[in-house]
Structure formats: C-alpha cells, structure tokens
C-alpha cells in the first residue's frame, strides 16, 4: 500500500523524531509512505494573514503535485499543515471559478480528489484493525492525550472527532495498554507560534496544560502536533519557571507511543531527540527508555 506523506517544514527540521516515528510505525504495518516530491511550505500561520490567494495556492500546489504522482491519499502529521491543506481544499473545491484561478496561479492541473488524513485518521484507517495483534510491550501508563487547537477545528470543515472533548487519540491509546485520563485542557492552546517571540506566554499557557495533566496523575503527555510537542517539551524550563515547580513528565508523539508498544526501538522512534527524557515512574515495568 502506497500513501503520500507531506512532511512539511517541521518534520524535516525541528521535529525529525516525529517523521522517524511515523515512518517506523508505517513500516511495522507494511505500509509504504512516500514523500510528496518537490513539496513546499503550506503557509502555516502566516500566509492567510497576508494574501488570500497565496494562502490557497501554497496548499493547493502540494495537493496538485500529489495528484500528478498518483497519490490518492496523503497523511499530514503536522496539525497546522493538516488544517491548512484541508481548509484550502474545502474552500477551493466549493468554488469552481476560484479553483480555476488558483490552478492557474499554481500552474498545475488540480481536481481536488486527494484524501487528506491527519496522523490519527491514518492510524484509524490503516493500522487500527491490526494493532492489538502486534502489541509486544503494552504502554502501561496514565496518559494525557493532548489534541491542541487545530487537530479537530474548525469542526464544520474537518468533521473529525468532537471539537471540545475529542476521543480518538484516547481510544488508540487504550488499545496499546494506556490509561487515558479525563482532564480539562486537551484542546487548550499551548502558545503555538509564540514559542520564539514570547517564551513567557508559552510558559504560562503550556504550564497550565502540564499542571492539570500532572495533577490528574498523567505519567506521559501524548501529542500529534510538532508545535505542541515543541512548546511542551523544548520550553519546559519556561513552563517550570511559570509554575514554580519542576515537572519532568515526558511528552511523546502518539506514533512514538505506538512504536514502543509494538517493539520498535527507542532510537528508531527518535526518543533521544527530546529535551525532557522519556522516563516513567519506577513502579511501572517499562521505566527508563534507554537509547543506545
């Protein structure tokens, strides 16, 4: 099975471990992921604030290239990229005149038939029915599944899960042996793109998220977004400063958690790239994840 992968800027840069874990899990389930050739930035959070046609042309060019390469489905692990591609496809496909204009700007034919999957949808569609039989070491930890702002919003366009209390990531984690906690901050903002310009804001917002999860017994935070991971992991010093306490709870991508459960090595999953070491409470069987 061949599925397109749109890595975007993050998965080829600061979130290499996410791409490594996505590819490792796909391989474990005999799924061939192929990067969309000559892909470009999706425009992320900036383009739609500057120029509307540009904000549509960047994602549509990616989808048009996928079509040219015979890719009927593409997985987009970054929640921000997933949002931009899906929203742009929805807008352009609903207006034939706009579709033709954007195709002219891009300089490529575009039909709008590519199915776009976020990483949870990819797991649901292609991995879920085989997951239980491949479990080797259950992920036996209390987990806070953090969806962030963009993975399930806007609901009217994405039509994925519930916008205020999503459950799909929780259900996947249950299948690999985790105990997902019920908590209040699963879709609250972590600070997003303020990570560089205002680390104090990120420390405050992400601190609230971490504190609620830890107070409810979470032993790991599970994410599906590079920006969420960056703010909760890389900005841990700012979080701890904001809270006035030292929180050491690790943050893992959902593909890393699945990978550990099905026996993929920590190094293949990129766990050595995290700022906060992946260490679980001593009472659990799988304690410290060692990377050789």
Summarize the structure.
This protein has two domains: 2-119, Glutathione S-transferase Yfyf (Class Pi), Chain A, domain 2, CATH 1.20.1050; 135-273, Rossmann fold.
Walkthrough of the structure:
By secondary structure, this protein is an alpha/beta fold. The chain folds into 2 domains: 2-119, Glutathione S-transferase Yfyf (Class Pi), Chain A, domain 2, CATH 1.20.1050.140; 135-273, Rossmann fold (3-Layer(aba) Sandwich). The protein contains 15 helices and 8 strands. The chain has helices at residues 8-11, 16-28, 47-50, 52-68, 79-93, 96-106, 119-126, 128-134, 155-158, 168-175, 194-197, 199-215, 226-234, 236-243, 254-261; strands at 2-5, 32-35, 73-75, 115-117, 142-145, 179-180, 220-223, 251-253. It has a 4-stranded parallel β-sheet, sandwiched between helices. Helix 2 (16-28) crosses helix 15. Residues 282-287 have low confidence and may be disordered.
Helix content: 40-55%
Beta-strand content bin: 5-15%
Number of helices: 15
The CATH class of the largest domain, by name, is Alpha Beta
What gross morphology would you assign? globular
Cα Rg = 19 Å
Named at the architecture level, the CATH assignment of the largest domain is 3-Layer(aba) Sandwich
Question: What is the total tally of β strands?
Answer: 8
Q: Which consecutive residue ranges, at least 5 long each, have pLDDT under 50?
A: 282-287
Count of distinct structural domains: 2
**Biggest sheet: strands side by side, in what order?**
2-1-3-4
Distance between the termini: 32 Å
Indicate the mean pLDDT.
Answer: 93
Element-by-element helix/strand order: EHHEHHEHHEHHEHHEHHEHHEH
**Structural class, please?**
alpha/beta
Reported for the largest beta sheet, the result is: 4 strands, parallel
CATH topology of the largest domain: Rossmann fold
């Amino acid at each position: 099975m061949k599925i397109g992968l749109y890595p975007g800027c993050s998965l080829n840069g600061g979130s290499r471990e996410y791409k490594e874990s996505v590819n490792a899990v796909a391989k474990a389930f005999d799924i061939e992921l192929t990067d969309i050739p000559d892909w470009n930035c999706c425009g992320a959070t900036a383009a739609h604030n500057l120029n509307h046609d540009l904000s549509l042309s960047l994602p549509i060019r990616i989808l048009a290239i996928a079509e040219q390469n015979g890719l009927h489905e593409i997985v987009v692990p970054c929640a921000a990229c997933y949002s931009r591609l899906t929203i742009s496809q929805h807008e352009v496909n609903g207006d034939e005149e706009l579709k033709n204009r954007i195709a002219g700007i891009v300089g490529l034919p575009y039909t709008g038939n590519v199915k776009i999957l976020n990483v949870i949808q990819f797991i649901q569609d292609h991995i879920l029915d085989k997951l239980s039989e491949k479990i080797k070491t259950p992920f036996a930890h209390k987990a806070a599944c953090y969806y962030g702002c963009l993975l399930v919003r806007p609901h009217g366009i994405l039509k994925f899960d519930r916008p205020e209390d999503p459950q799909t990531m929780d259900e996947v984690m249950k299948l690999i042996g985790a105990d997902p906690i019920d908590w209040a901050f699963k879709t609250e903002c972590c600070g997003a793109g303020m990570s560089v310009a205002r680390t104090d804001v990120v420390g405050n917002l992400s601190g609230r998220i971490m504190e609620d999860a830890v107070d409810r017994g979470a032993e790991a935070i599970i994410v599906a977004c590079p920006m969420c991971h960056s703010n909760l992991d890389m900005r841990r010093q700012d979080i701890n400063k904001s809270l006035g306490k030292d929180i050491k709870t690790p943050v893992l991508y959902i593909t890393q958690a699945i990978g550990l459960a099905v026996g993929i090595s920590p190094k293949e999953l990129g766990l050595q790239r995290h700022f906060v070491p992946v260490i679980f409470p001593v009472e659990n069987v799988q304690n410290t994840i060692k990377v050789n």
